[in-house]
Design goal:
- The chain is an alpha/beta fold and 696 residues long.
- It contains 29 helices and 25 strands.
- α3 packs parallel to α4.
Length: 696
């Protein structure tokens, strides 16, 4: 039977984003708890639920409580999707019975691996249904006891409640299970059953049975035994306590013990597969999380470190030369790094372009630094690495949070300078403070999205001058963040974090609504010829719902879409060129202006410009600045303007600050300019007043 997945998320955009990540699965969707329960009604083919869980949307937690209370949902597994900075929600979910928690931002590879693991476990559960039916039949029907015992893949027993598990009765299946004859275990004639249990499980099983006796519950536990031949086997024991007539003293324990080695082997193999990178055969991020959990359970002490290797420009090469080339590079890097693995150095593949060594038992930071030099020397043997470059981040940590360790090491790697192909940095107090600040900025953005707190998202409007008419031609809407804790936050900070966390999607809708309201005011005041441009990221453009959301906002605001514009950077074309270009063509057909922002500093070039569906170019400030100190004949700004005009595109020069730059641009036929020479970004009321006085 095909297992269906139920996606539960309150917001439509979240459901659409999840559908995009999980399109290869058989899914149904629900917008909340009530809708989810309705979807589950009469649907035994739904085996897994993936639900949002955060302070604002506790659907996942509510569903877990309902599943626990209602036998109709027995066996349903739930993966909770949690937010960064909300560990208490993860703890609550796991206590309530969640099969797994996945923290945002969601990576397709990680989420799919977690889901695949749960689907495999569901499949395994179906595989052992027949054995469980045999167990149930044995306990419920004395009349079938002899038949069941002869077919049982294990043994039935009755024993004393003592540390040796002294056997009063053992079925004939004992020999096949343990290698010992049944009579050898009776009353510890040759050995006790405790001797057969693998030593590391003995104390835990005694403690478990003691709890069962006290609470008068059924016993069910998996553990390993050591057979007469010395072979280890995984077994499942289910049992119950037999009390005396008075109901006080324990008379005996009864149960069955079956061989589950095959099933356990499948589980371990599936776990192994889910924790392996298919391309390189290295352990992945899931395995890193697993070994940290095990180390915590074992009470391991001592320092630990993560040495993260980020292949800086691998994605650029992937775009230029294709996946096959980039994958061959990754395999070569993996092979070189694997030579440095050892007992206390485990090589991991964290993501497509990121490797990491997990280190423990090292002497100190100096030993780590020496190891980093070994990594650099190994990578220098791969010639293409001088082009790709790598940034190495080192995070020493004492806790057990894999995500936190990776985040810290990645922050250290990303903060290295770009002047050399091989650089490294330790995560330090400065980066810790930066990380703390990032978390506070993200918190402010979340507050804005949820309309809670006093944090504010504002727009400033910078006028754009039409050089042909000398009148105002438009405004660029620039987002600004005012945090209650941090004050004014620069766009360079909060836009980056918004994109990394996917907050840019709901934030972008807020910006669109604010810009449309401003445009509506302009039209009502008779300033209908002034365009309003907003910045759009690749994260927003690739969403299927983006066009619909924008159209809905335009319709609700009642403005003319032909007076609206999108500014995009060249980087949006780095992936999915054809899809992005097709979407831009759709917007142009609606009358939307598409401006290429910061042209000349990113992914594309003038040769590819003719393929892009854009209506105007914004020449980067870097080119405009050169007009102040280079001879006119030594700059290429004029040539860019001429080529853009031949392609039928208008040109906007941004960052214009002085008369000399203006004169050059006018002489070369530039269409529009933007910058402090004309005006700084203005508050809404200032912008309205500016528009009124610069229309004539």
């Amino acid at each position: 039977m095909s297992v269906k997945i139920l996606l539960v998320a309150k917001k439509a955009e979240d459901r659409l984003a999840l559908e995009g990540l999980l399109r290869r699965y058989d899914m149904i969707c629900a917008g909340g708890v009530t809708e989810a329960l309705s979807a589950l009604d009469g649907r035994p083919d739904v085996g897994l639920v993936v639900a949002e869980l955060n302070k604002a949307d506790k659907a996942g937690l509510l569903l877990l409580e309902i599943f626990k209370a209602d036998s109709r949902y027995a066996g349903l597994r739930l993966i909770a999707l949690t937010e960064p900075g909300e560990p208490e929600m993860e703890i609550s979910a796991l206590k309530a019975g969640a099969a797994d928690c996945v923290r945002k931002p969601l990576l397709a590879e990680v989420l799919q691996n977690r889901i695949d693991t749960q689907l495999q476990l569901i499949s395994l559960k179906h595989d052992i249904t027949r054995r469980e039916e045999i167990e149930k039949a044995l306990l419920e029907s004395e009349r079938s006891k002899s038949v069941l015992l002869s077919n049982l893949p294990g043994m039935a027993y009755r024993c004393n409640y003592d540390r040796e598990w002294t056997m009063q009765f053992v079925s004939e299946g004992c020999h096949e299970l343990t290698g010992y004859q049944a009579d050898e275990l009776l009353y510890n004639k040759k050995l006790s059953f405790n001797d057969i249990i693998a030593p590391e499980y003995r104390e835990a099983l005694w403690d478990r049975w003691r709890d069962i006796v006290r609470e008068k519950r059924q016993f069910r536990e998996e553990y390993e035994i050591i057979t007469a031949s010395g072979k280890r086997k995984w077994v499942l024991e289910t049992g119950q306590v037999i009390f005396g007539e008075a109901g006080g003293e324990v008379e005996a324990l009864e149960g069955i013990i079956i061989d589950i080695s095959d099933r356990k082997e499948k589980e371990l193999r599936l776990k192994h597969i889910s924790e392996m990178d298919r391309l390189t055969g290295l352990y992945n991020r899931l395995h890193f999380e697993s070994i940290l959990r095990q180390a915590e359970a074992d009470g391991q002490g001592g320092g630990r470190a993560l040495v993260l290797i980020n292949l800086k420009r691998l994605n650029t090469l992937k775009v230029t030369y294709g996946y096959n080339f980039s994958e061959s590079v990754i395999k070569r890097v993996a092979s070189r790094l694997a030579e440095l693995s050892g007992e206390h150095r485990l090589l991991l593949k964290i993501s497509f372009e990121i490797f990491a060594f997990y280190m423990d038992g090292y002497a100190g930071s100096s030993e780590i630094e020496q190891f980093v030099f070994q990594i650099i020397n190994a990578l220098k043997k791969i010639r293409i690495m001088f082009t790709i470059g790598c940034a190495i981040g080192i995070a020493e940590f004492a806790g057990w949070d894999a995500d936190a360790a990776i985040k810290s090491a990645l922050a250290a790697a990303e903060s290295t300078e770009n002047s050399q192909p091989f650089e490294y940095r330790f995560f330090d107090s400065e980066l810790e403070e930066r990380e703390r600040r990032d978390e506070e900025i993200i918190e402010a953005l979340v507050n804005i999205i949820n309309a809670s707190g006093r944090d504010r998202l504002l727009l400033r409007y910078q006028p754009i001058l039409d050089l042909k008419t000398g009148r105002i031609g438009g405004f660029e809407a620039l987002a600004r963040l005012e945090s209650e804790k941090l004050g004014q936050v620069s766009p360079e900070e909060f836009i980056r974090l918004a994109e990394e966390t996917q907050i840019i999607v709901p934030m972008g809708k807020i910006i669109m609504k604010m810009a449309c309201a401003f445009k509506r005011r302009l039209e009502e005041l008779g300033c209908s010829g002034i365009a309003v441009f907003i910045n759009i990221s690749a994260t927003q453009l690739v969403r299927e719902a983006f066009a619909r959301d924008f159209t809905d906002i335009i319709r609700e605001s009642g403005i003319d879409p032909t007076g609206f514009g999108f500014e995009i950077t060249e980087s949006v074309f780095a992936d999915n060129f054809e899809m992005i270009n097709e979407k831009l063509s759709h917007f142009i057909s609606l009358g939307i202006q598409i401006a290429m922002d910061d042209f000349g500093t990113g992914y594309s070039s003038l040769s590819r410009e003719r393929e892009m569906n854009v209506t105007c170019l914004k020449i980067s400030k870097a080119f405009i600045d050169k007009l102040s100190y280079l001879e006119p004949e030594k700059t290429i700004t004029g040539e860019i303007i001429a080529i853009a005009h031949r392609l039928g595109q208008r040109v906007i020069a941004e960052g214009v600050e002085n008369e000399g730059q203006v004169r050059y641009l006018v002489e070369r036929g530039c269409d529009m300019l933007q910058g402090y020479y004309y005006s700084k970004p203005l508050l809404e009321e200032e912008a309205i007043a500016f528009a009124k006085t610069h229309l004539m």
